[in-house]
Amino acid sequence: MPGNLGIVSTIQQRIAELAQRSPDFSFFSLAHYIDINWLMEAYSRTRKDGSAGIDNVTGKEYAEKLYENLQNLLSRLKSGTYKAPPVKRKHIPKGTGGETRPIGIPTFEDKIVQRAVVMLLEPIYEHDFYDGSFGFRPGRSAHQALREVWKTTMDMSGGWVLEVDIRKFFDTLDHKHLQEFVSRRVRDGVLRRLIGKWLNAGVMDGGELSFSEAGSPQGGVISPLLANVYLHYVLDKWFEQQVKPLMRCARHGR
Prior knowledge:
Blueprint: H1 4-21, H2 36-44, H3 59-63, H4 66-79, E1 87-93, E2 100-105, H5 108-125, H6 142-155, H7 169-172, H8 175-183, H9 189-199, E3 203-205, E4 208-210, H10 223-243
Parallel strand pairs: 1-3
Antiparallel strand pairs: 1-2, 3-4
């Protein structure tokens, strides 16, 4: 379906402009933008060669009846009957000792829905996040973060560099706090319920289904954005507004 990218880009630009003009504005109506064109574009941005989720449906199989599948998906989203399926958990080596990193694999269809929601939320939060934030953001990379660290260190003619690794961060995100942070900018009930469904969908690990009151499975399309929203409020704003004014030549980046 031609023209999907142009339609989506125009809507995203409108959202971004409003987010920039009104940093304290809460968006109450966003989900209505998700139509068949929006889902088609979300599908085009979704990796087709990734591992299948618990339903074992691959991207290739989903594409065999793409328009029919997306129409059915849209109907469930509009009626509120869409159910976020549990993610399939895989453990991959970290490369240090015998530790592994748990990765959650959503179903292909759920990846499309998550991408559709990310396409609505990114234009808002890209204007909220600080310049020192690099992780999981469009157009930014770890190499850019390293260059910024080098440049800042050179400009200061030395100084302290503090490296902090938040252990098991994705596994310990507090759902209640995360939803409260999201509500400061996004109060659209449909999107808020979808986020709640993903947070509470559960994890299928070795044939056993488990649920947790904390965490967002690492590997989901929506998880990096939710993690950045969480860190924006508990780390970045705290450092920029409270810590940095008390320090000389302080810079912050992640």
